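Q: What structure does this chain adopt?
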Amino acid sequence: MTVQNMFTPLVSARGTTRYGAKTAMSAGHLIMAAGMIGLSLLPGDTSVWVIALVMVPVAFGGGLAMPAMTGLLLECGPMARAGLASGVSTPAASSAKPWPCQSSVR
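A:
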């Protein structure tokens, strides 16, 4: 999955440029959800290799959603605070509170 996550941000960049950050984030989270549903349906005695195969969509979805989210966070704040926005991107992804943003990103 690490090798996969080296290339997924390239797909995310193209998707974000073509369809917008919100669409890339939504698609990534939907793919992650499909993988999680697949994991939840596996029986307890499932082979590790099958579990690893079902984890591929989870990793791909995360790699698709996170770069788009980070880019959106960096655009929301002033350039002088770009480091702060970048530093809070992971906790913000785990939070239920949305970041109020008047972004021009579609």
